[in-house]
Amino acid sequence: MDNEYNNDDLYSSSDEEDEKSIVDSQNDDDDSEKELEINDENDVDIDDINENANNDDDEYDDDGDEENEHVTQIGGVGPNPNLLDEDSDEDEDYQSAYLQKFNAEINKNYILDFHPECAIHNYDEITLLTKVIRDKNNNIIDDLHKTIPFLTKYERTRVIGQRAKQINTGAKAFIKVPENVIDGYLVAELELMQKRIPFIIRRPTPGGGCEYWNLKDLEIISF
């Protein structure tokens, strides 16, 4: 009897476990189906939202195009080829007139008209302008040299100062310097007294002109 009872109990317990597993699996299937239905509904809602947004954008673009066409037909903002051509023609005329005026201003030689003393001659011209014409009595009869043929104190100061600066910076002396003389200023004075300094004096004259004198052609006066 005990064996029969035990077998019956085993069968009944196994049957109950099978029923529970079947019920659990059915419940799991029902839950998964519900989740799938919810996901499908969400996907449908998202697709509907995207389609509505695209439709709204298309309607907005269509409205914008219609408004632009309406404004262009009225003559408001739309480009007008005739106006663009007129503007370009006016710009070209203005630029050409400006360039002509600019060229005319360049052709005017303001330096020679108002500051002729600023005009710079080249080396060949200065060489010719420094030549002094004299008569048989050694008198100057040159039209390009009308000022006195003496070295002024201002010219003397400028010549000695410039030459002393050159000597102090390493320039070679044009005379034989005594051994006890080492100052550039004293060497410059000795060169000036012997007329060995190859300087050209430029003297401004009334009327905007100027004279060019070789330093050796001017008489040196002791002040």
TrEMBL record:
<dbReference type="GO" id="GO:0005665">
    <property type="term" value="C:RNA polymerase II, core complex"/>
</dbReference>
<dbReference type="GO" id="GO:0006360">
    <property type="term" value="P:transcription by RNA polymerase I"/>
</dbReference>
<dbReference type="GO" id="GO:0005666">
    <property type="term" value="C:RNA polymerase III complex"/>
</dbReference>
<dbReference type="InterPro" id="IPR020708">
    <property type="entry name" value="DNA-dir_RNA_polK_14-18kDa_CS"/>
</dbReference>
<dbReference type="GO" id="GO:0005736">
    <property type="term" value="C:RNA polymerase I complex"/>
</dbReference>
<dbReference type="GO" id="GO:0042797">
    <property type="term" value="P:tRNA transcription by RNA polymerase III"/>
</dbReference>
<dbReference type="InterPro" id="IPR006110">
    <property type="entry name" value="Pol_omega/Rpo6/RPB6"/>
</dbReference>
<protein>
    <recommendedName>
        <fullName>DNA-directed RNA polymerase</fullName>
    </recommendedName>
</protein>
<feature type="compositionally biased region" description="Acidic residues">
    <location>
        <begin position="84"/>
        <end position="93"/>
    </location>
</feature>
<keyword id="KW-0804">Transcription</keyword>
<dbReference type="GO" id="GO:0003677">
    <property type="term" value="F:DNA binding"/>
</dbReference>
<keyword id="KW-0240">DNA-directed RNA polymerase</keyword>
<dbReference type="InterPro" id="IPR036161">
    <property type="entry name" value="RPB6/omega-like_sf"/>
</dbReference>
<dbReference type="GO" id="GO:0006366">
    <property type="term" value="P:transcription by RNA polymerase II"/>
</dbReference>
<dbReference type="GO" id="GO:0003899">
    <property type="term" value="F:DNA-directed RNA polymerase activity"/>
</dbReference>
<dbReference type="Pfam" id="PF01192">
    <property type="entry name" value="RNA_pol_Rpb6"/>
</dbReference>
<feature type="region of interest" description="Disordered">
    <location>
        <begin position="1"/>
        <end position="93"/>
    </location>
</feature>
<feature type="compositionally biased region" description="Acidic residues">
    <location>
        <begin position="26"/>
        <end position="68"/>
    </location>
</feature>
